[in-house]
Amino acid sequence: MGEKSIVFFDIDGTLLDHDKKLPVTAREAVFALKELGHEVAIATGRAPFMFADLRKELGIDTFVSYNGQYVVLRGEEIYKKPLDQRALLALTELAVTKDHPVVYMDHEDMKANVSQHDYITESMDSLKIEQVVTHDPLYYQNRDIYQSLLFLKSGEEKLYENQFSEFDFVRWHPLSIDVIPAGGSKAIGIEKITSALNIGEQHQYAFGDGLNDIEMLTQIKNSVAMGNAHPDAKAAASFVTRSVDEDGIVEGLKQVGLLS
Description:
Elements (H helix, E strand, L loop, with lengths): L5 E4 L14 H12 L3 E5 L8 H7 L4 E3 L4 E4 L2 E5 L4 H13 L4 E4 L4 E3 L5 H8 L8 E2 L11 E5 L6 H6 L3 E7 L2 E6 L4 H12 L6 E5 L5 H6 L2 E4 L5 H6 L2 E2 L7 H8 L5
Parallel strand pairs: 1-2, 1-12, 2-3, 7-8, 12-13, 13-14
Antiparallel strand pairs: 3-4, 4-5, 6-7, 6-9, 9-11, 10-11
């Protein structure tokens, strides 16, 4: 075998299908890569606690989470970029006046500033995760918060975009947006890992499907978009494979020559 490569996989719509299930062929492909001596990592917008079971199932301990804000290499935290605390407080104060609930997320848990809200229930249910949002309005104090969720209808985020240049706002549900540090991306987190491992660009691979994968798919030369990917993600990638539920991971790995 030639020099060792590293393969980064997005989770939702890439490793996991639309029912949030891991196809058997995708699981087998990950273990085949590891048997060949390649490094396998995850690059996701999810919080670390939202894919702990998947990491355990696949034996993966290197990951980029929160779209690049919290990065772990072989179980060790190597990079973090939390939200600006003063700006987060000001955003919370504005959100309270508008009845827009806020959820604070660190690397271990997530807490809401309200005890219950229909917008939180509806959007979080769509993720099909076991974790439940509990109530702690002061959770942002004295800890690093890597991402916040703001719950509001489409268009209402303009108010916040105009006031908080410290943050980027990314809609992920009709009733919710991610609040992340401005200028963050999976690509930045990936660079931290590849430089630490000293793996050259010709040995870097990435699979993704969403708008938050575009920087990653653009930066990494051997990039693969899923067949179910957003058209902009497909345009950014070097290769396009089949969809997640048509053995897209295996086919993509064969396309780039990592599996035969």
